[in-house]
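OP here, attaching both records as promised.
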Amino acid sequence: MKIQLASSYGFCFGVKRAIKIAEEHQGSKTYGPLIHNKDEINRLKEGFNIGLAEKFEDVKSDDSVVIRTHGIPKNELAQLKEQENEIIDATCPYVTTPQQIVEKMSGEGYSVVVFGDKNHPEIKGVISYAKEARNAFVVNDEAELEGLPILSKVAVVAQTTRKPEDFLKVVNALILAHKEVRVFNTICNATFENQDAAYELAKDADVMIVIGGRHSSNTKQLHSICKSYCDDSYLIENEKELDAAWFERKDLCGISAGASTPDWIVQNVIDTIEKMVKVD
Protein backbone atom coordinates (compact mmCIF):
# COMPACT_ATOMS: atom_id res chain seq x y z
CA MET A 1 0.00 0.00 0.00
CA LYS A 2 1.14 3.54 -0.74
CA ILE A 3 0.68 6.44 1.71
CA GLN A 4 0.15 9.91 0.26
CA LEU A 5 -0.23 13.20 2.11
CA ALA A 6 -2.61 15.83 0.80
CA SER A 7 -0.77 18.69 -0.94
CA SER A 8 -2.03 21.06 1.77
CA TYR A 9 -2.86 20.00 5.32
CA GLY A 10 -2.36 20.75 9.00
CA PHE A 11 -1.38 23.88 10.89
CA CYS A 12 -2.67 27.13 9.39
CA PHE A 13 -1.11 30.57 9.89
CA GLY A 14 -3.43 31.46 12.78
CA VAL A 15 -2.68 28.28 14.72
CA LYS A 16 1.09 28.53 14.17
CA ARG A 17 0.90 32.11 15.43
CA ALA A 18 -1.14 31.16 18.52
CA ILE A 19 1.21 28.30 19.45
CA LYS A 20 4.24 30.61 19.16
CA ILE A 21 2.51 33.26 21.30
CA ALA A 22 1.67 30.68 24.00
CA GLU A 23 5.19 29.25 24.01
CA GLU A 24 6.57 32.76 24.51
CA HIS A 25 4.35 33.28 27.59
CA GLN A 26 5.18 30.34 29.83
CA GLY A 27 3.06 30.12 32.97
CA SER A 28 0.12 31.93 31.40
CA LYS A 29 -3.41 30.56 31.12
CA THR A 30 -5.68 30.25 28.08
CA TYR A 31 -9.36 31.04 28.39
CA GLY A 32 -10.88 28.05 26.63
CA PRO A 33 -8.68 25.63 24.67
CA LEU A 34 -6.15 27.62 22.61
CA ILE A 35 -6.87 25.36 19.61
CA HIS A 36 -9.06 22.31 19.03
CA ASN A 37 -6.39 19.67 19.59
CA LYS A 38 -6.08 18.14 23.04
CA ASP A 39 -2.71 16.47 22.35
CA GLU A 40 -1.11 19.80 21.41
CA ILE A 41 -2.76 21.45 24.44
CA ASN A 42 -1.21 18.77 26.66
CA ARG A 43 2.20 19.44 25.05
CA LEU A 44 1.89 23.13 25.90
CA LYS A 45 0.82 22.29 29.46
CA GLU A 46 3.67 19.86 30.08
CA GLY A 47 6.40 21.70 28.21
CA PHE A 48 5.49 25.34 28.77
CA ASN A 49 3.27 25.33 31.89
CA ILE A 50 0.32 26.77 29.96
CA GLY A 51 -2.82 26.50 32.10
CA LEU A 52 -6.43 26.29 30.97
CA ALA A 53 -9.51 28.13 32.25
CA GLU A 54 -12.51 26.23 30.87
CA LYS A 55 -15.01 28.78 32.22
CA PHE A 56 -14.75 32.54 32.62
CA GLU A 57 -15.11 32.16 36.40
CA ASP A 58 -11.87 30.13 36.40
CA VAL A 59 -9.88 33.20 35.37
CA LYS A 60 -8.26 34.88 38.39
CA SER A 61 -7.52 38.59 38.53
CA ASP A 62 -3.75 38.00 38.59
CA ASP A 63 -3.72 35.57 35.64
CA SER A 64 -1.93 36.33 32.40
CA VAL A 65 -4.62 35.33 29.93
CA VAL A 66 -3.98 34.12 26.39
CA ILE A 67 -7.03 34.70 24.18
CA ARG A 68 -7.74 31.57 22.13
CA THR A 69 -7.41 31.50 18.32
CA HIS A 70 -11.21 31.48 17.99
CA GLY A 71 -11.56 34.70 19.99
CA ILE A 72 -13.95 35.35 22.86
CA PRO A 73 -17.17 37.40 23.24
CA LYS A 74 -16.71 41.17 23.37
CA ASN A 75 -18.22 41.50 26.86
CA GLU A 76 -15.84 38.90 28.30
CA LEU A 77 -12.84 40.69 26.79
CA ALA A 78 -14.09 43.89 28.42
CA GLN A 79 -14.38 42.10 31.79
CA LEU A 80 -10.79 40.87 31.54
CA LYS A 81 -9.69 44.46 30.96
CA GLU A 82 -11.75 45.63 33.95
CA GLN A 83 -10.09 42.97 36.11
CA GLU A 84 -6.74 44.33 34.85
CA ASN A 85 -5.60 40.92 33.69
CA GLU A 86 -2.56 40.83 31.45
CA ILE A 87 -4.18 40.04 28.08
CA ILE A 88 -2.18 38.21 25.42
CA ASP A 89 -4.28 38.18 22.26
CA ALA A 90 -3.77 35.07 20.11
CA THR A 91 -7.04 35.54 18.20
CA CYS A 92 -6.48 34.58 14.58
CA PRO A 93 -6.52 37.71 12.36
CA TYR A 94 -8.93 35.86 10.03
CA VAL A 95 -11.34 35.67 13.00
CA THR A 96 -10.82 39.30 14.01
CA THR A 97 -11.95 40.41 10.54
CA PRO A 98 -15.58 39.17 10.78
CA GLN A 99 -15.76 40.60 14.32
CA GLN A 100 -14.88 44.03 12.93
CA ILE A 101 -17.27 43.67 9.98
CA VAL A 102 -20.19 42.72 12.23
CA GLU A 103 -19.50 45.67 14.52
CA LYS A 104 -19.20 48.15 11.64
CA MET A 105 -22.16 46.98 9.54
CA SER A 106 -24.55 46.62 12.47
CA GLY A 107 -23.54 50.14 13.51
CA GLU A 108 -24.55 51.37 10.04
CA GLY A 109 -28.07 49.97 10.40
CA TYR A 110 -27.68 46.63 8.65
CA SER A 111 -29.05 43.36 9.88
CA VAL A 112 -26.17 40.93 10.24
CA VAL A 113 -26.30 37.27 9.23
CA VAL A 114 -23.47 35.01 10.34
CA PHE A 115 -23.26 31.68 8.53
CA GLY A 116 -21.91 29.13 10.98
CA ASP A 117 -22.45 27.03 14.07
CA LYS A 118 -24.03 29.12 16.84
CA ASN A 119 -22.40 26.90 19.49
CA HIS A 120 -18.86 27.29 18.10
CA PRO A 121 -16.63 29.67 20.12
CA GLU A 122 -15.63 31.59 17.00
CA ILE A 123 -19.26 32.39 16.19
CA LYS A 124 -20.12 33.25 19.80
CA GLY A 125 -17.34 35.82 19.63
CA VAL A 126 -18.25 37.20 16.19
CA ILE A 127 -21.97 37.65 16.89
CA SER A 128 -21.21 39.44 20.18
CA TYR A 129 -19.87 42.41 18.20
CA ALA A 130 -23.31 43.27 16.80
CA LYS A 131 -24.61 46.62 18.07
CA GLU A 132 -28.15 45.26 18.47
CA ALA A 133 -28.73 41.59 19.26
CA ARG A 134 -32.26 41.74 17.77
CA ASN A 135 -30.78 42.49 14.34
CA ALA A 136 -28.09 39.78 14.41
CA PHE A 137 -28.72 36.19 13.34
CA VAL A 138 -26.70 32.98 13.13
CA VAL A 139 -27.78 30.37 10.59
CA ASN A 140 -26.38 26.95 9.77
CA ASP A 141 -27.95 26.79 6.30
CA GLU A 142 -30.25 28.74 3.98
CA ALA A 143 -33.40 27.03 5.35
CA GLU A 144 -32.86 28.69 8.72
CA LEU A 145 -33.27 32.14 7.11
CA GLU A 146 -36.99 31.58 6.67
CA GLY A 147 -39.12 33.71 8.97
CA LEU A 148 -36.24 35.73 10.46
CA PRO A 149 -37.05 39.46 10.95
CA ILE A 150 -34.15 40.60 8.77
CA LEU A 151 -34.11 44.25 7.65
CA SER A 152 -34.10 45.23 3.97
CA LYS A 153 -30.37 45.95 4.32
CA VAL A 154 -28.32 42.94 5.37
CA ALA A 155 -24.62 42.10 5.70
CA VAL A 156 -23.45 38.49 5.71
CA VAL A 157 -20.21 36.88 6.91
CA ALA A 158 -19.14 33.26 7.28
CA GLN A 159 -17.41 31.13 9.86
CA THR A 160 -13.80 30.95 8.69
CA THR A 161 -13.82 27.16 8.24
CA ARG A 162 -17.06 26.68 6.29
CA LYS A 163 -17.44 25.27 2.77
CA PRO A 164 -17.65 28.06 0.15
CA GLU A 165 -20.44 26.30 -1.76
CA ASP A 166 -22.62 26.21 1.39
CA PHE A 167 -21.93 29.91 2.04
CA LEU A 168 -23.06 30.70 -1.51
CA LYS A 169 -26.42 29.01 -0.87
CA VAL A 170 -27.04 31.34 2.08
CA VAL A 171 -25.88 34.37 0.08
CA ASN A 172 -28.14 33.53 -2.88
CA ALA A 173 -31.16 33.09 -0.62
CA LEU A 174 -30.53 36.50 0.94
CA ILE A 175 -30.09 38.20 -2.45
CA LEU A 176 -33.44 36.86 -3.63
CA ALA A 177 -35.25 38.08 -0.52
CA HIS A 178 -33.68 41.44 0.39
CA LYS A 179 -33.13 44.80 -1.26
CA GLU A 180 -29.47 45.31 -0.31
CA VAL A 181 -27.05 42.50 0.56
CA ARG A 182 -23.42 43.16 1.49
CA VAL A 183 -21.38 39.97 1.21
CA PHE A 184 -18.06 39.56 3.02
CA ASN A 185 -16.18 36.38 2.20
CA THR A 186 -14.52 35.64 5.53
CA ILE A 187 -13.67 31.98 4.82
CA CYS A 188 -9.94 31.49 5.44
CA ASN A 189 -7.61 30.79 2.49
CA ALA A 190 -6.05 27.90 4.41
CA THR A 191 -9.51 26.33 4.61
CA PHE A 192 -9.88 26.57 0.81
CA GLU A 193 -6.46 25.02 0.24
CA ASN A 194 -6.86 22.16 2.71
CA GLN A 195 -10.36 21.34 1.46
CA ASP A 196 -9.34 21.39 -2.21
CA ALA A 197 -6.31 19.20 -1.50
CA ALA A 198 -8.41 16.71 0.50
CA TYR A 199 -10.96 16.55 -2.31
CA GLU A 200 -8.30 15.88 -4.95
CA LEU A 201 -6.71 13.10 -2.91
CA ALA A 202 -9.97 11.48 -1.76
CA LYS A 203 -11.04 11.00 -5.40
CA ASP A 204 -8.14 8.59 -5.94
CA ALA A 205 -7.66 7.08 -2.48
CA ASP A 206 -8.97 3.69 -1.31
CA VAL A 207 -8.92 4.85 2.30
CA MET A 208 -8.62 8.37 3.75
CA ILE A 209 -7.37 9.25 7.22
CA VAL A 210 -8.29 12.73 8.46
CA ILE A 211 -6.39 13.74 11.59
CA GLY A 212 -7.69 16.35 13.99
CA GLY A 213 -9.77 17.17 17.04
CA ARG A 214 -13.37 15.94 17.03
CA HIS A 215 -14.48 19.40 18.17
CA SER A 216 -12.62 21.08 15.31
CA SER A 217 -15.02 22.53 12.73
CA ASN A 218 -12.47 22.55 9.91
CA THR A 219 -11.47 18.94 10.62
CA LYS A 220 -15.08 17.81 10.50
CA GLN A 221 -15.50 19.65 7.21
CA LEU A 222 -12.43 17.87 5.80
CA HIS A 223 -13.82 14.50 6.88
CA SER A 224 -17.18 15.31 5.30
CA ILE A 225 -15.49 16.19 1.98
CA CYS A 226 -13.38 13.02 2.02
CA LYS A 227 -16.38 10.87 2.89
CA SER A 228 -18.21 12.23 -0.16
CA TYR A 229 -15.56 10.81 -2.48
CA CYS A 230 -14.07 7.93 -0.49
CA ASP A 231 -16.43 5.76 1.55
CA ASP A 232 -13.61 4.48 3.74
CA SER A 233 -12.76 7.83 5.30
CA TYR A 234 -11.97 7.99 9.01
CA LEU A 235 -11.53 10.91 11.43
CA ILE A 236 -9.00 10.24 14.18
CA GLU A 237 -7.36 12.41 16.83
CA ASN A 238 -4.09 10.48 16.99
CA GLU A 239 -2.39 7.20 16.04
CA LYS A 240 -3.97 5.31 18.97
CA GLU A 241 -7.31 5.28 17.13
CA LEU A 242 -6.03 3.54 13.99
CA ASP A 243 -7.42 0.11 13.08
CA ALA A 244 -5.32 -2.23 10.93
CA ALA A 245 -8.51 -3.60 9.33
CA TRP A 246 -9.05 -0.26 7.59
CA PHE A 247 -6.02 -0.89 5.36
CA GLU A 248 -6.70 -4.46 4.29
CA ARG A 249 -6.64 -4.85 0.47
CA LYS A 250 -6.09 -1.11 -0.02
CA ASP A 251 -3.67 0.32 -2.57
CA LEU A 252 -3.64 4.02 -1.69
CA CYS A 253 -4.04 5.57 1.76
CA GLY A 254 -4.57 9.33 1.66
CA ILE A 255 -3.88 11.50 4.71
CA SER A 256 -5.15 14.97 5.50
CA ALA A 257 -5.15 16.94 8.74
CA GLY A 258 -7.10 19.79 10.28
CA ALA A 259 -5.70 23.27 10.85
CA SER A 260 -5.06 22.53 14.54
CA THR A 261 -3.11 19.32 13.92
CA PRO A 262 0.68 19.58 14.45
CA ASP A 263 3.16 17.78 12.21
CA TRP A 264 4.36 15.53 15.04
CA ILE A 265 0.91 13.92 15.33
CA VAL A 266 0.70 13.46 11.54
CA GLN A 267 4.11 11.76 11.57
CA ASN A 268 3.07 9.48 14.45
CA VAL A 269 0.06 8.38 12.39
CA ILE A 270 2.20 7.66 9.32
CA ASP A 271 4.74 5.69 11.39
CA THR A 272 1.98 3.61 12.97
CA ILE A 273 0.32 2.80 9.62
CA GLU A 274 3.69 1.74 8.24
CA LYS A 275 4.06 -0.73 11.12
CA MET A 276 0.54 -2.09 10.52
CA VAL A 277 0.82 -2.77 6.79
CA LYS A 278 3.40 -3.27 4.08
CA VAL A 279 4.07 0.13 2.55
CA ASP A 280 5.44 0.60 -0.96
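Record two, same layout:
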Amino acid sequence: MEYRHTPVLPAEVTKYLSLHPGSIIVDCTLGGAGHAKRIADSIAPTGTLVGIDQDDAALVAAADTLRLGRQIILLKGNFSEIDRLLSEAGIAYADGFLFDLGVSSPQLDVTERGFSYHDEAPLDMRMDPEGGGPTAADIVNSYPEAELLRVIREYGEERWASRIAAFIVAARGRRPIRTTAELVGIIKDAVPASARRGGPHPARRTFQALRIEVNRELEVLEQGLRSALRWLVPGGRIVVISYHSLEDRVVKRVFSELASGCECPPELPVCSCGKEPVLRIVTRRPVVPGPDEIESNPRARSAKLRAAERV
Protein backbone atom coordinates (compact mmCIF):
# COMPACT_ATOMS: atom_id res chain seq x y z
CA MET A 1 0.00 0.00 0.00
CA GLU A 2 1.27 3.48 -0.84
CA TYR A 3 2.45 5.37 2.24
CA ARG A 4 0.66 8.61 1.55
CA HIS A 5 0.57 11.64 3.82
CA THR A 6 -1.61 14.69 3.33
CA PRO A 7 -0.03 17.24 5.68
CA VAL A 8 -2.30 19.16 8.02
CA LEU A 9 -1.92 22.96 8.31
CA PRO A 10 1.03 22.99 5.86
CA ALA A 11 1.14 26.76 5.31
CA GLU A 12 0.88 27.38 9.05
CA VAL A 13 3.75 24.97 9.77
CA THR A 14 5.94 26.85 7.28
CA LYS A 15 4.96 30.17 8.84
CA TYR A 16 5.47 29.27 12.48
CA LEU A 17 8.73 27.39 11.93
CA SER A 18 10.03 30.65 10.41
CA LEU A 19 11.93 28.75 7.73
CA HIS A 20 14.76 30.23 5.70
CA PRO A 21 17.63 28.85 3.56
CA GLY A 22 20.35 27.34 5.70
CA SER A 23 18.11 26.31 8.60
CA ILE A 24 18.58 22.98 10.37
CA ILE A 25 15.08 21.59 10.95
CA VAL A 26 14.16 18.34 12.69
CA ASP A 27 10.88 16.70 11.66
CA CYS A 28 10.28 14.39 14.63
CA THR A 29 7.29 12.65 13.04
CA LEU A 30 8.41 12.15 9.45
CA GLY A 31 5.55 9.92 8.24
CA GLY A 32 5.16 10.08 4.47
CA ALA A 33 7.21 13.32 4.38
CA GLY A 34 4.30 15.58 3.50
CA HIS A 35 5.58 18.32 5.79
CA ALA A 36 9.23 17.36 5.28
CA LYS A 37 9.06 17.98 1.51
CA ARG A 38 7.80 21.53 2.03
CA ILE A 39 10.38 22.15 4.75
CA ALA A 40 13.24 20.83 2.60
CA ASP A 41 12.21 23.07 -0.28
CA SER A 42 12.03 26.11 2.03
CA ILE A 43 15.50 25.65 3.55
CA ALA A 44 17.29 24.66 0.32
CA PRO A 45 19.94 24.77 -0.95
CA THR A 46 22.09 25.06 2.20
CA GLY A 47 19.72 23.88 4.92
CA THR A 48 19.59 20.45 6.52
CA LEU A 49 16.45 18.44 7.16
CA VAL A 50 16.58 15.70 9.78
CA GLY A 51 13.64 13.29 9.68
CA ILE A 52 12.85 10.91 12.55
CA ASP A 53 10.37 8.04 12.46
CA GLN A 54 10.10 4.63 14.09
CA ASP A 55 8.13 3.13 11.21
CA ASP A 56 10.26 1.46 8.52
CA ALA A 57 7.52 1.97 5.90
CA ALA A 58 7.53 5.71 6.60
CA LEU A 59 11.30 5.94 6.23
CA VAL A 60 11.23 4.08 2.90
CA ALA A 61 8.44 6.30 1.57
CA ALA A 62 10.15 9.46 2.81
CA ALA A 63 13.45 8.49 1.16
CA ASP A 64 11.64 8.15 -2.16
CA THR A 65 9.76 11.44 -1.73
CA LEU A 66 12.76 13.46 -0.60
CA ARG A 67 15.34 11.94 -2.97
CA LEU A 68 18.09 11.64 -0.41
CA GLY A 69 21.06 13.92 -0.59
CA ARG A 70 23.70 15.15 1.80
CA GLN A 71 21.29 17.79 3.18
CA ILE A 72 18.68 15.17 4.11
CA ILE A 73 19.26 12.86 7.09
CA LEU A 74 16.72 10.16 7.95
CA LEU A 75 16.91 8.45 11.35
CA LYS A 76 14.95 5.50 12.73
CA GLY A 77 13.77 5.95 16.29
CA ASN A 78 11.24 7.52 18.59
CA PHE A 79 11.39 11.25 19.23
CA SER A 80 11.91 10.49 22.92
CA GLU A 81 15.43 9.50 21.74
CA ILE A 82 16.24 12.92 20.24
CA ASP A 83 19.43 13.29 22.29
CA ARG A 84 20.89 9.98 21.10
CA LEU A 85 19.67 10.28 17.51
CA LEU A 86 20.99 13.79 16.90
CA SER A 87 24.28 13.08 18.65
CA GLU A 88 24.90 9.97 16.56
CA ALA A 89 24.01 11.91 13.40
CA GLY A 90 26.54 14.63 14.23
CA ILE A 91 23.94 17.40 14.56
CA ALA A 92 25.17 20.15 16.86
CA TYR A 93 22.00 22.26 17.13
CA ALA A 94 18.64 22.87 15.47
CA ASP A 95 16.75 25.94 14.30
CA GLY A 96 13.37 24.26 14.51
CA PHE A 97 11.45 21.14 15.51
CA LEU A 98 8.16 19.85 14.15
CA PHE A 99 5.97 17.33 16.00
CA ASP A 100 2.94 16.22 13.96
CA LEU A 101 1.33 13.82 16.41
CA GLY A 102 -1.23 11.05 16.02
CA VAL A 103 -1.43 8.02 13.77
CA SER A 104 -0.73 8.44 10.07
CA SER A 105 -3.20 7.35 7.42
CA PRO A 106 -1.29 4.20 6.35
CA GLN A 107 -1.06 2.99 9.95
CA LEU A 108 -4.82 3.39 10.26
CA ASP A 109 -5.61 1.96 6.85
CA VAL A 110 -3.31 -1.08 6.76
CA THR A 111 -5.43 -3.74 8.41
CA GLU A 112 -2.64 -5.84 9.89
CA ARG A 113 -1.34 -2.95 12.00
CA GLY A 114 -4.36 -3.39 14.28
CA PHE A 115 -5.17 0.31 14.77
CA SER A 116 -8.57 0.25 13.07
CA TYR A 117 -11.84 -0.84 14.63
CA HIS A 118 -13.41 -1.30 11.18
CA ASP A 119 -11.51 -4.45 10.11
CA GLU A 120 -10.44 -7.70 11.73
CA ALA A 121 -6.74 -7.87 12.55
CA PRO A 122 -4.41 -8.93 15.35
CA LEU A 123 -4.61 -6.58 18.34
CA ASP A 124 -1.18 -4.97 17.96
CA MET A 125 -1.21 -1.13 17.76
CA ARG A 126 2.56 -0.73 18.15
CA MET A 127 4.02 2.12 16.11
CA ASP A 128 7.17 0.04 15.66
CA PRO A 129 6.12 -3.63 15.47
CA GLU A 130 9.77 -4.68 15.30
CA GLY A 131 10.70 -2.81 18.45
CA GLY A 132 9.17 -5.21 20.95
CA GLY A 133 7.08 -4.11 23.88
CA PRO A 134 3.52 -5.05 24.84
CA THR A 135 0.75 -5.15 22.26
CA ALA A 136 -2.87 -4.12 22.75
CA ALA A 137 -3.68 -7.82 23.12
CA ASP A 138 -1.20 -8.08 25.98
CA ILE A 139 -2.90 -5.17 27.73
CA VAL A 140 -6.51 -6.30 27.37
CA ASN A 141 -5.62 -9.84 28.44
CA SER A 142 -3.35 -9.06 31.40
CA TYR A 143 -4.19 -5.70 33.01
CA PRO A 144 -6.29 -5.90 36.20
CA GLU A 145 -9.79 -4.52 35.78
CA ALA A 146 -8.98 -1.37 37.76
CA GLU A 147 -5.99 -0.63 35.54
CA LEU A 148 -8.01 -1.23 32.37
CA LEU A 149 -10.64 1.16 33.71
CA ARG A 150 -7.97 3.80 34.36
CA VAL A 151 -6.52 3.52 30.84
CA ILE A 152 -9.90 3.64 29.08
CA ARG A 153 -11.23 6.48 31.23
CA GLU A 154 -8.06 8.58 31.32
CA TYR A 155 -6.76 8.12 27.78
CA GLY A 156 -10.04 7.50 26.00
CA GLU A 157 -12.22 9.87 28.06
CA GLU A 158 -14.82 7.14 27.67
CA ARG A 159 -18.14 7.55 29.50
CA TRP A 160 -18.70 3.78 29.62
CA ALA A 161 -15.16 2.89 30.74
CA SER A 162 -16.30 0.96 33.81
CA ARG A 163 -18.66 -1.29 31.84
CA ILE A 164 -16.16 -1.81 29.03
CA ALA A 165 -13.40 -2.82 31.46
CA ALA A 166 -15.76 -5.24 33.24
CA PHE A 167 -16.93 -6.78 29.95
CA ILE A 168 -13.33 -7.22 28.76
CA VAL A 169 -12.36 -9.02 31.98
CA ALA A 170 -15.42 -11.27 31.73
CA ALA A 171 -14.74 -12.09 28.07
CA ARG A 172 -11.05 -12.88 28.55
CA GLY A 173 -12.03 -15.21 31.38
CA ARG A 174 -13.68 -17.39 28.74
CA ARG A 175 -10.90 -17.11 26.16
CA PRO A 176 -8.09 -14.67 25.28
CA ILE A 177 -9.03 -11.63 23.19
CA ARG A 178 -6.80 -11.71 20.10
CA THR A 179 -8.35 -9.61 17.33
CA THR A 180 -9.73 -6.13 16.79
CA ALA A 181 -13.09 -7.58 15.77
CA GLU A 182 -13.37 -9.55 19.01
CA LEU A 183 -12.65 -6.45 21.05
CA VAL A 184 -15.12 -4.35 19.05
CA GLY A 185 -17.82 -6.93 19.72
CA ILE A 186 -17.13 -6.82 23.46
CA ILE A 187 -17.24 -3.02 23.50
CA LYS A 188 -20.52 -2.96 21.59
CA ASP A 189 -22.00 -5.36 24.13
CA ALA A 190 -20.80 -3.11 26.98
CA VAL A 191 -22.11 0.18 25.58
CA PRO A 192 -25.91 0.52 25.91
CA ALA A 193 -27.82 0.41 22.64
CA SER A 194 -29.15 3.94 23.17
CA ALA A 195 -25.58 5.28 23.35
CA ARG A 196 -24.56 3.41 20.18
CA ARG A 197 -27.25 4.96 17.98
CA GLY A 198 -25.63 8.37 17.63
CA GLY A 199 -22.16 9.84 17.72
CA PRO A 200 -18.85 8.21 16.83
CA HIS A 201 -18.13 4.49 16.62
CA PRO A 202 -18.53 2.97 20.11
CA ALA A 203 -15.01 1.50 20.00
CA ARG A 204 -13.23 4.69 18.94
CA ARG A 205 -12.33 5.98 22.39
CA THR A 206 -11.23 2.59 23.75
CA PHE A 207 -9.00 1.99 20.72
CA GLN A 208 -7.48 5.45 21.18
CA ALA A 209 -6.83 4.69 24.85
CA LEU A 210 -5.14 1.37 24.08
CA ARG A 211 -2.97 2.93 21.36
CA ILE A 212 -1.81 5.64 23.76
CA GLU A 213 -1.01 3.07 26.45
CA VAL A 214 0.80 0.69 24.08
CA ASN A 215 3.05 3.45 22.73
CA ARG A 216 3.31 5.53 25.95
CA GLU A 217 2.37 8.48 23.76
CA LEU A 218 1.81 11.16 26.40
CA GLU A 219 4.95 10.28 28.37
CA VAL A 220 6.99 10.17 25.17
CA LEU A 221 5.54 13.50 23.99
CA GLU A 222 6.60 15.38 27.12
CA GLN A 223 10.04 13.79 27.01
CA GLY A 224 10.43 14.71 23.35
CA LEU A 225 9.42 18.34 23.87
CA ARG A 226 11.87 18.81 26.74
CA SER A 227 14.65 17.09 24.80
CA ALA A 228 14.08 19.26 21.73
CA LEU A 229 14.50 22.39 23.81
CA ARG A 230 18.08 21.40 24.66
CA TRP A 231 19.02 21.43 20.97
CA LEU A 232 17.17 24.57 19.96
CA VAL A 233 19.14 27.76 19.29
CA PRO A 234 17.86 31.11 20.63
CA GLY A 235 15.15 32.25 18.25
CA GLY A 236 14.54 28.66 17.12
CA ARG A 237 10.99 27.32 17.23
CA ILE A 238 9.05 24.23 18.23
CA VAL A 239 5.79 23.61 16.35
CA VAL A 240 3.39 20.90 17.55
CA ILE A 241 0.21 19.65 15.88
CA SER A 242 -1.99 17.57 18.19
CA TYR A 243 -5.19 15.71 17.39
CA HIS A 244 -6.89 15.12 20.72
CA SER A 245 -7.30 17.01 23.98
CA LEU A 246 -4.87 14.88 25.98
CA GLU A 247 -1.97 15.66 23.64
CA ASP A 248 -2.90 19.33 23.49
CA ARG A 249 -2.99 19.56 27.29
CA VAL A 250 0.53 18.14 27.54
CA VAL A 251 1.84 20.63 24.96
CA LYS A 252 0.07 23.57 26.59
CA ARG A 253 1.32 22.60 30.07
CA VAL A 254 4.95 22.10 29.02
CA PHE A 255 5.02 25.32 26.99
CA SER A 256 3.44 27.29 29.85
CA GLU A 257 5.88 25.90 32.40
CA LEU A 258 8.91 26.67 30.25
CA ALA A 259 7.62 30.16 29.38
CA SER A 260 7.10 31.19 33.00
CA GLY A 261 9.70 33.06 35.03
CA CYS A 262 10.06 33.70 38.75
CA GLU A 263 7.84 31.55 40.95
CA CYS A 264 8.62 33.26 44.25
CA PRO A 265 5.73 34.46 46.45
CA PRO A 266 4.79 38.03 45.46
CA GLU A 267 5.58 39.34 48.96
CA LEU A 268 9.29 38.52 48.57
CA PRO A 269 11.19 41.71 47.63
CA VAL A 270 13.91 39.80 45.70
CA CYS A 271 13.67 36.66 43.60
CA SER A 272 15.22 33.66 45.32
CA CYS A 273 14.18 30.90 42.90
CA GLY A 274 16.26 32.18 40.00
CA LYS A 275 13.87 30.72 37.44
CA GLU A 276 13.86 32.43 34.06
CA PRO A 277 11.68 31.69 31.01
CA VAL A 278 13.32 29.62 28.29
CA LEU A 279 10.43 29.76 25.81
CA ARG A 280 8.19 32.45 24.41
CA ILE A 281 4.77 31.19 23.41
CA VAL A 282 4.08 32.30 19.83
CA THR A 283 0.47 31.06 19.56
CA ARG A 284 -1.56 32.22 22.55
CA ARG A 285 -4.50 30.29 21.13
CA PRO A 286 -4.16 27.08 19.13
CA VAL A 287 -4.25 27.45 15.35
CA VAL A 288 -6.90 25.24 13.73
CA PRO A 289 -7.68 24.28 10.11
CA GLY A 290 -10.22 26.25 8.13
CA PRO A 291 -13.39 24.74 6.65
CA ASP A 292 -11.84 24.25 3.20
CA GLU A 293 -8.98 22.16 4.58
CA ILE A 294 -11.33 20.10 6.73
CA GLU A 295 -13.53 19.40 3.73
CA SER A 296 -10.59 18.22 1.63
CA ASN A 297 -8.87 16.35 4.50
CA PRO A 298 -11.40 15.23 7.16
CA ARG A 299 -8.65 13.92 9.44
CA ALA A 300 -7.59 17.54 9.96
CA ARG A 301 -10.83 18.30 11.82
CA SER A 302 -9.42 17.90 15.33
CA ALA A 303 -5.95 19.35 14.67
CA LYS A 304 -4.53 22.11 16.87
CA LEU A 305 -1.19 23.79 16.26
CA ARG A 306 0.87 25.43 18.99
CA ALA A 307 4.25 27.09 18.57
CA ALA A 308 6.91 28.41 20.93
CA GLU A 309 10.28 30.12 20.48
CA ARG A 310 13.53 29.64 22.40
CA VAL A 311 14.63 32.79 24.23
